[in-house]
Amino acid sequence: MCNTDRCCALFWPCILILACVVLFGQIFFPEYHSRDPNFEVDSVTINPFDMSNNSSSHKTTTTTHCNITFFVQNRNKKSFPLYFKDIKASIFYKKENISSIEIRPFFQLNPKENILVNANFVVSSEDMDSSVANSIVQDWKSGVVGFNVVVRGTVKIDPWTDVEENYLISVSCEEIKVGFSSNVTTGSMSGGSRKCHVVLLNPFHEVDMR
Ligand SMILES: *[C@@H]1O[C@H](CO)[C@@H](O)[C@H](O)[C@H]1NC(C)=O
Ligand SMILES: *[C@@H]1O[C@H](CO)[C@@H](O)[C@H](O)[C@H]1NC(C)=O
Ligand SMILES: *[C@@H]1O[C@H](CO)[C@@H](O)[C@H](O)[C@H]1NC(C)=O
Ligand SMILES: *[C@@H]1O[C@H](CO)[C@@H](O)[C@H](O)[C@H]1NC(C)=O
Ligand SMILES: *[C@@H]1O[C@H](CO)[C@@H](O)[C@H](O)[C@H]1NC(C)=O
After folding, report:
1. Which residue, of 89, 139, 149, 162, has the fewest CB within 10 Å?
2. Are the C-beta atoms of 105 and 84 separated by less than 8 Å?
């Protein structure tokens, strides 16, 4: 690489200066911009569907419990605690929002930390069009019910410090499939955990003036 004396004389000093600049940056400006958290659907269970006839209205009401466990991981290497709040999870069946639930706020203090977060939904045909309810029951009888899950809320990065940043978080977990081996068994998600798509938006870039 050294084909002239002048180049040779400059090569090592240049490398040294570059190394110093990189080292300085690492020490005084650690990875400032944090990375999006990782969301996965870890497991899903759905109770057998309960169909009850209302003798006075002659209507059949179908209800079930759907319990979803999310795996949430703080992907930051350095210490950027995350605080998740106002979190709402919703189940979408073919673009129809059929059930929704609030999730208690939670923290992730340590880099690389991961936690499991539960969401227990009640799904009732009372909350949807009868055609949608019928379609879900048909799927259940055929052995597989498929749906998408959307999680929305707020995530605070480095809360309670003067560099706190607030983001809106939008998570979408698509094509979750739950298999039922018979109409009396509890269904569970097939095919292992499912990665979700995460988007962070910073619509209100708050500057903390403390
Ligand atoms: C889901 O959770 C609810 C409430 O904790 C419980 O009643 C239901 O049996 C659970 N269902 C499954 C499939 O674990
Ligand atoms: C509900 O009523 C319909 C007819 O009215 C009947 O076919 C069905 O078996 C009943 N279902 C239950 C769970 O009682
Ligand atoms: C049956 O239907 C009637 C009329 O819609 C309603 O008032 C009643 O609460 C229902 N009963 C049950 C057990 O769902
Ligand atoms: C789904 O519907 C519920 C109840 O109407 C609502 O609170 C929730 O925000 C909706 N979810 C989405 C992602 O629109
Ligand atoms: C469950 O399936 C069995 C056999 O397929 C059937 O005889 C039974 O009526 C079904 N039960 C319900 C509640 O649909």
Report:
1. 162
2. yes
CA 131 to centroid of ligand 3, rounded, Å: 20
Task: Considering every ligand atom shown, identify the ligand nearest to the alpha carbon of residue 184 and give its number.
Answer: 5
- Element (DSSP H or E) covering residue 31: none
Whether residue 178 contacts residue 44, with contact meaning beta carbons closer than 8 Å, is answered with: yes
Tens of pLDDT, residue by residue over 149-190, are: 999 999 988 877 777 788 999 999 999 999 999 988 999 998
Q: Which ligand is nearest to the CA of 60?
A: 2
Give 186 Cα–ligand 1 centroid separation in angstroms. 10
Please tell me the distance from the alpha carbon of residue 40 to that of residue 193, in angstroms, as a whole number: 6
Look-up: residue for tokens 């991961």? 114
Q: Which residues contact 28 (CB under 8 A, 6 or more apart)?
A: none
Measured by CA distance, the residue closest to atom 6 of ligand 2 is 53
* Number of other CB atoms surrounding residue 206 within 10 Å: 10
Q: For position 41, what pLDDT does the model report?
A: 97
